[in-house]
Design brief:
This protein has about 70 residues and is an all-alpha fold. Helix content is about 60%, strand content about 0%. It contains 3 helices and no strands.
């Protein structure tokens, strides 16, 4: 396999996971703080346009100061 796991190792791990059933014990965040944190898991950014606008404003302000 490409990831280094043999068929035997993969079958053994699969069986162990089915035996452990971690999905039965998974509860997710319980506190407001934890829920707030995980709500941002899919956030990819979105700051680029705001940073560009800020840079434009700073350049404009810098140019204004040079004239004074």
């Amino acid at each position: 396999m490409a990831n280094g796991w043999t068929q035997e190792r993969q079958a053994r791990q699969s069986g162990l996971i089915r035996q452990w059933q971690p999905w039965e014990k998974s509860t997710g965040p319980k506190t407001i703080e934890g829920k707030s944190t995980v709500s941002q898991n899919a956030f990819k950014g979105g700051w680029r346009e705001q940073m560009r606008e800020l840079a434009r404003l700073l350049r404009k302000q810098g140019n204004g100061l040079e004239r004074v």
